[in-house]
Amino acid sequence: MLEATPKTVYLKDYQPPEFLVDAIDLFFELDAEATRVTSRLKLRHNPAVAEWNPTLVLDGEQLAFESAKLNGRVLAESEYGVSESGLVIHAVPERPFELEITNRINPEANTALEGLYLSDGMFCTQCEPHGFRRITYYIDRPDVMSLFTTTIVADQSRYPVLLSNGNRIASGELKNGRHWVRWEDPFKKPCYLFALVAGRLACLEDRFVTASGREIALQIYVEPHDRDKCDHAMQSLKHAMRWDEERFGREYDLDLYMIVAVSHFNMGAMENKGLNIFNTKFVLARPDTATDADYEHIEGVIGHEYFHNWTGNRITCRDWFQLSLKEGLTVFRDQEFSASRSSRAVKRIEDVNLLRTRQFAEDAGPLAHPVRPDSYIEINNFYTLTVYEKGGEVVRMMQTMVGPEGFRKGMDLYFERHDGQAVTCDDFVRCMEDANGIDLSQFRLWYAQAGTPELRLDPEYDAGARTLRLFVRQSCPPTPGQPVKQPLHVPLALGLLAPDGSELPLRLAGEAEAKPGTRVLHVREAEQVFEFVDVPERPVVSALRGFSAPVRLKMERSAEELAFLFAHDTDAFSRWDAGQTLATQVMLGLIERIRAGENPETVDSNLVDAFRRLLAQPAADPSYQALLLSLPSEDYVAALMSVADPEAIHRARQIIRRVLATVLAGDFLRLYREHQAGETGGLDPAARNRRRIKNTCLGFIAELETSESYELCVRQFREARTMTDQIAALAAIVNSANPEKTVCLESFYAQWREEALVIDKWFSLQASCPLPGTLESVKALTAHPDFDLRTPNRVRSLIGAFSQANPVNFHAADGSGYEFLGNQIVALNAINPQVAARMLGSLTQWRRYDKGRQDAMCRQLQRIAGLEGVSKDVYEVAVKSLA
């Protein structure tokens, strides 16, 4: 257990810092076990704070203090105090002063990967949110922005590359085989954006010429054996730089932009000013080692971190409660970038699918929190889908309401008004208001109110009056600390379809003329009525087009009406959603029969006929067609049930897949062969689209469990030209009774054992297999020589895949899956609390299940919460989950 209850930090208690740091000069003498850090700070009293307090409090954790000087004078022990949480200087002068501090740290012992640590012999840093205090004593908060200068000294043979933020201004050699490099960042930044890297690295170099004609040097640093996997990352960076210039008028501001890929990293990437540090997963790609999805993710994450240069670095957040100011906005920007580079429809659906499956569950659980949280114990626990993905949806709604031109005006004003500042979510919204002359007072509730709103739509058509009245009711379930919710301002995009599938022009009562296409209705009340006039015949309502707001839509629809929308809706998202809703209805019906003791073997003909029509139609966008052929995930369906039944859900979904595979076998095989015949291994959009639909068909064909289907999967596995095709075939083999399963798994491992990211896929495939016996396989894999709890990617690929992507086995009725996860979290807590807390998320939804599973999950949560030496990260998640 914790020795004392951790302190809760509240947004309402925010106070500006008493001191500001105008400049910090850092001097590192690198050593694996005893790095010496000397910091020279220029400080002054903050004029925004009225009262003078001569006590200076600096944050610091796991530091060995050596000395402190104030204005060049060595401080006596009586003049300062050192504790586990920092350094206090008892009396500093009221005028500006200089403080020099020397301390030591042990990077090799830093398995939490926060601050300065070692990754495969390479020094690297992670300072967001509170890692800098593990490097040296400082006022570690985002609203303290300073000019950084960094000098690094290290052994030249072991660490020939020495990197930090900004521009390289000097370097030299020293005695005893050591050398030094000095870096200067001309832009003020908070300390969470500080970065340092030192190691034996290879570099891929390129150039980018900005719209104004400036030449920017681009460098990607990786371990030497990975240099041939950086081309896609470099091209993605250049595309992102050009896109940001064209879409938002933002040019890069330094002369050099660097990316470093490291194998030990808690997150995806970090936007440190001028020196981004990335998880290797989001940099390294080659057609034979990375899937098409990997290529897309790399481009998106490269873009995300680059876009932070303006939305996160040049303008940062005042405090960590405002995290979505930079993350939600930048998620929106990277989504728009990715949509411009591929199929906009597919990108939008993928983003919504993640939100509805994962973030909606977060909103419905014990850890539900607003986009701008009110409080936290450990801020690491709030790097969530709510802050990122829902935060991005909040930004998107603003664009929906003011239009693309109005949104650009608001962004331009935001950059003009707040460049170089640490600001709040309210400041961003105010820029949208001021630039467009609108009032978003009610809309601000999206930042303050937790939970997923529900919109209920009830249409009433009057044939005689030729009117359609649309009754809209909004509500939001209670969430922790917010039992009563206020109505939100919800942009509801919709259209009306005639019986022949054509779009009807829309005219609201009181309007002079009808307008074609999609309309955005502004829902502001708990109950509201919209009346459309001159509607010639009973229409079919296409609601929430483009997923115009992150809400659950409740609307009574027959299977026939959903099948009609699935065939005719002109909005890509709404068409896909109609198919998902139809399939969900069918699944829920099967689940009911299974739980009643029946053994259903057929499914609703509306779903089968809808898939048959879809397979028969030529597809302009095969990737979109593949999405239309997908079924809702087991997690998504579980969230719709009052009591989730993992076994019944899995069985119902498998029945649908096997019926579709059997009835439409010829169609799936025809489409598979059509796209397999043109396989070239290329990376162009057309080739990626063909692989996506082809492998979707292969997944259905594998459901047949015949010798022919087994042979087809094995043939693709052995002849694959790309990792996309090889891993798709291996997944089909692993998730079936294919007699070649063991041979193929061994062959894949032997082929790729030197490629860590590929072996991550090998672990994940086995951990996510829904067949019986998977838990025993996963337990055995934890003893595999290539599995290491100290490597976050490997933990996510095995422990994460089992607990988050294998619901039927993880939620085994005997609680064995929960016990296994509990054991791993106990071990991880002592190694990497941040990763441990993220793994714990799979147990937080215990209230959604039957009493037996609830009790088993709660036992693990109680055990973990009471663990001796439990970290703040893990403690907060466990305790809040049990509350």
From TrEMBL:
UniProt GO BP: proteolysis
Source organism: Methylococcus geothermalis
Domain Peptidase M1 alanyl aminopeptidase C-terminal per the UniProt entry, residue ranges: 560-883
InterPro entries: Aminopeptidase_N-like_N, Aminopeptidase_N-like_N_sf, PepN_Ig-like_sf, Peptidase_M1, Peptidase_M1_dom, Peptidase_M1_pepN, Peptidase_M1_pepN_C, Peptidase_M1_pepN_C_sf
Catalytic activity: Release of an N-terminal amino acid, Xaa-|-Yaa- from a peptide, amide or arylamide. Xaa is preferably Ala, but may be most amino acids including Pro (slow action). When a terminal hydrophobic residue is followed by a prolyl residue, the two may be released as an intact Xaa-Pro dipeptide
Family of the protein in this entry: Belongs to the peptidase M1 family.
Keywords attached to this entry: Aminopeptidase, Hydrolase, Metal-binding, Metalloprotease, Protease, Zinc
Protein name per its UniProtKB record: Aminopeptidase N
Location of the Aminopeptidase N-like N-terminal domain: 26-193
EC number of this enzyme: 3.4.11.2
Superkingdom field: Bacteria
GO MF annotations, alphabetized: alanyl aminopeptidase activity; metallopeptidase activity; zinc ion binding
Domain Peptidase M1 membrane alanine aminopeptidase: 233-443
Protein role: Aminopeptidase N is involved in the degradation of intracellular peptides generated by protein breakdown during normal growth as well as in response to nutrient starvation.
Occurrences of domain Peptidase M1 alanyl aminopeptidase Ig-like fold (ranges): 451-555
